[in-house]
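### Sample
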Amino acid sequence: MFRVAGVVNYLLVIFLNAFTDLGHKIIVQNTVFKVYDGSTQIVLTAIVNSLMLLPFILMFSPAGFLADKFPKNLIMKYASISAVFITLLITYSYYQGWFLVAFALTFLLALQSAIYGPAKYGYIKELVGLKFISAGNGAVQAITTSAILIGIIFYTALFEGMIGDVIYTKEEILKVIAPLGWLLVLGSVIEWYLASKLPNKMIEKSARKFRFKRYVFGAYLKKNMIMIKRKKEIFDNIIALGLFWSISQVILAIFGEYAKSELGITNALVVQGIMSLAVFGIVFGSILAANFSKYYINTGLSALSAIGITLVVLSIPFTTSVIFLAIEFILFGIFSGLLMVPLNAKIQYLSPNVHLGTILAGNNFIQTIFMFVFLMITTLFAYFGANAKILFYIMAIVGLYLSVMLFRRYFVMLFWVIFELMLKSRHSYKYVGLENIPKDKGALLMGNHVSWVDWLIVQLPIERRINYMIDKDIYNWKYCNAIFKKADLIPLSSKASKNSFFEASNRLKNGRIIAIFPEGQISRNSDVAKFYRGYEFIDRNGVDIVPFYIDGVFGSIFSRHNGKTKKSFFKKREITVYFGKPISDEIKADELRNKIIKLKGI
């Protein structure tokens, strides 16, 4: 992916955009932290976050229109140059000690980000294509969160170093730290220069015109919401991301007061340092998500991580140790990365290019509505003196709802990702010839059978679910039968196989993938046993027959190998699966066996 022209430049632009926006926000938040306590601190922190969110609500329709109408690289260029002028105003307000002006300019800085956002994320799909869409989202998430992590530490360390233990008013604080404003300006200037070098990747141009009257009276909003809800999976994922960001915003808004009142932590660097560890976790989680989405967008990760986020949020109010809090925030970040990357990638993947900007702007809009509402609720709770712990418990309940929502949407994918995590802890996999498996038509996969987990090894790189033919006696196991039915397995009996082959034929005609192990049983040695001819009774007319050979599993604990193999516990077993080119649907069992044997090492 990094060999694609413009990728490195684009990631640097993303980094600087997040680093600069975060820098001003951190300076304002740290000023609030130093001057105010209790409910006032929570309220002002919530207002700062709200000022960062409100532009994403107001600019939904215009930002989406611009991202669809004009080249996304130009939007990023002009948005970044506007940030130069905004940061100059912010710097001036620092030197004058105008706290309220600096506070209000948070809104203006967020306004350019709201216009920037849809173009920034839509550009991923245009720049790297569908092949690297998960890797691209993982890189963007990792870079963005790295910028946030570095920005929090960088600006908080400089802030604390300049303020020290001296007690100042908010106006005096701004005057003392005013030179930091020039760093914001410098970041914006470099960002603008790099953005001006990005290539134009616009493929489809829109002839639409923006009518201000329709925008003011909500016509665009109504139309765009209908467009977003057209595909239920896109809309569900946007709602899920909205809930996640709402939880995150509330946790960040209340943790400072919680640490100060419950744990007695008064150093802004310590508080911001603990929260910034979540950003470190997001970087790692995003890289993991990209790795697990190497072959397709692994949405099962999002359901698994939602459960993890809920458990972490629930555990924070019971933790008094700074070390354990740090661990919890790292875990929160890891689960966050695992949740965000596949959901964002799926939204981009399912969105048509001509409406991509509008859908991504809608994604920002709905997420922001969620975050804004949750922050207002937080403000009300704080105003009436509610304990921060209560808000942690409420967020855990929201996390539970999010977990159930994603569990229901991606139940099957969650099932597969759990097994994948288990196997990848002991195995490393390489797949050769995946391009031979058709994307949108029926296919019959046939190969050697060397272990109890062959079905899972073959399935891992294929997003479409494989319907395996399985021995009827195993299929009828009391405690597994319901799972086998849910997995659409086809029971096969040597005495009554006619119905099984008829069912397999029907599924192939309906575009499903069927897999058979013609040996009929797991091999007890490394040789490929005789193939049974049962598959010849399946109607294979017009169906691609794809042979495969699994190499490297034999000798593992999952095989029927009786001997002992000398292998370090800490060394992963390397497994390779070879998929051959589609072969004639008239091929006989012996010829098929020979072709499969020859696949090894191609």
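The CA atoms of residues 531 and 589 lie 6 Å apart. This sample (MFS transporter) is used throughout the tutorial notebook.
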